[in-house]
Write a structure and sequence with these properties.
Helix content: 25-40%
Strand content: 25-35%
Structural class: alpha+beta
Radius of gyration: 17 Å
Number of strands: 10
Shape: globular
Distance between the termini: 32 Å
Largest sheet: 5 strands, antiparallel
Length: about 220
Amino acid sequence: MIGSVLPDAVACEAAYDDPGPGPGELVYPQEKERVAQAVPKRQREFTTVRLLARRALLRLGQPPVPLLPGHRGAPSWPDGIVGSMTHCDGYRAAAVARADGTASVGIDAEPDAPLPDGVLDLIGLPDETKQVRLLTERHPGTSWDRLLFSAKESVFKVWYPLTGIELDFSEARIVIDPVARTFRAELLVPGPLVGGRRVGEFPGRWLAERGLVVTAIHLPAARET
């Protein structure tokens, strides 16, 4: 799923369960240590998404390395590589690209089910919650509130590696196109510098199928003037 909403420059791998390491694949002791106290479900998700990420890295010619989480759980990638990981019930995915062509990439997957009561008001701006209501009325069949949440998660995953600072849900406004299956994230705070230019919005794509919603943002390393 995730590969269909990202350009060819991004190597993607995904799974719908936790098959375990394949022939020759390693789970590094440093990684096991990070989730040693976690529940088994969390350990399996953590392991699977890193195996997927190493498969994606191999497609870029990168040798296997431990992929340890840093602040806010953001993975530490090899030099010259940018990437993103996601996992939810029934889906795990990783996306990686070379930093010389991609400034940042963010992916997120969520179950295609309504958010718990009250969450939309916590994560959505007033015009976003209005947008969700209209989309629900006019385009039933997709959990638009969950899609909004997923898009904001992808925004953060693009933003944080470029800035190293937090971004609140209220600091990005999402506009969803239900027909083109795209979205636009307008940053309400000064955006990151990419290729010497300040970026004020992130373009994204989304997909809803197999009981899931996935969102992805690819930010090129340089933009044409």
